[in-house]
Design a protein that fits this description.
Mito_Metabolite_Transporter; 3 domains; 0% strand; MCP_dom_sf; mainly alpha; 245 residues; single chain; repeat; 80% helix
Length: 245
């Protein structure tokens, strides 16, 4: 074995396979975030579906008949009537979606920045390149994740059918994938992809541009180096900024 190959084997995995490491780390971070916030997403969806179902049945009297009012009462009602773990009902397709979407967009953005666009002579990455790279990464990430996004929405709609007293269409996530594929073919898994990628392009234009700007500032103005820790800190700061907004 040659010396370069031996040295490469001694490198950390994040340096030997940077793209795969970036995808896995982004996917893990997205999974943790989704598990932490999914009860809020479920509660919001229940409120929306409850209102639509009540309007369909009762018209103007829907407000008085609604079993849940407000986020807190809705969450407490789900816990009391269905159990605490039901706050995470349907989390599997959401995790699938975020792993593919977050991992795909981050790997794409890093590739565009380092290989396609490149940095300027002073190692600075211009803002206009960050904007274009962020939009393109969002488009590619969302396009890859569209089948999982579709299944997530379809699974959430099952709650509406249950409220309306209709039979459920899917037995689980994998059955939903199989049924959509059987009924619509491969193209059926990408239904609604155009508005989805348009939204993702705008969202990532802000998210990834801010992330890259924060990371560049930290590398230049602090003792931090351009590594996984700095990437994670930049992501946390961007996420905190969005939460405050």
């Amino acid at each position: 074995m040659s010396v370069p190959e031996e040295e490469e084997r001694l490198l950390p995995l994040t340096q030997r396979w940077p793209r795969a490491s970036k995808f896995l780390l982004s996917g893990c971070a997205a999974t943790v975030a989704e598990l932490a916030t999914f009860p809020l997403d479920l509660t919001k969806t229940r409120l929306q579906m409850q209102g639509e179902a009540a309007l369909a049945r009762l018209g103007d009297g829907a407000r008085e008949s609604a079993p849940y009012r407000g986020m807190v009462r809705t969450a407490l009602g789900i816990i009391q009537e269905e159990g605490f773990l039901k706050l995470w009902q349907g989390v599997t397709p959401a995790i699938y979606r975020h792993v593919v979407y977050s991992g795909g967009r981050m790997v794409t953005y890093e590739h565009l920045r380092e290989v396609v666009f490149g940095k300027s002579e002073d190692e600075h990455y211009p803002l206009w390149k960050s904007v274009i790279g962020g939009m393109m990464a969002g488009v590619i990430g969302q396009f890859l994740a569209n089948p999982t996004d579709l299944v997530k929405v379809q699974m959430q709609m099952e709650g509406k059918r249950k409220l309306e007293g209709k039979p459920l269409r899917f037995r689980g996530v994998h059955h939903a994938f199989a049924k959509i594929l059987a009924e619509g073919g491969i193209r059926g898994l990408w239904a609604g992809w155009v508005p989805n990628i348009q939204r993702a392009a705008l969202v990532n234009m802000g998210d990834l541009t801010t992330y890259d700007t924060v990371k560049h500032y930290l590398v230049l103005n602090t003792p931090l180096e351009d590594n996984i820790m700095t990437h994670g800190l930049s992501s946390d700061l961007v996420g905190s900024h969005k939460a405050i907004q």
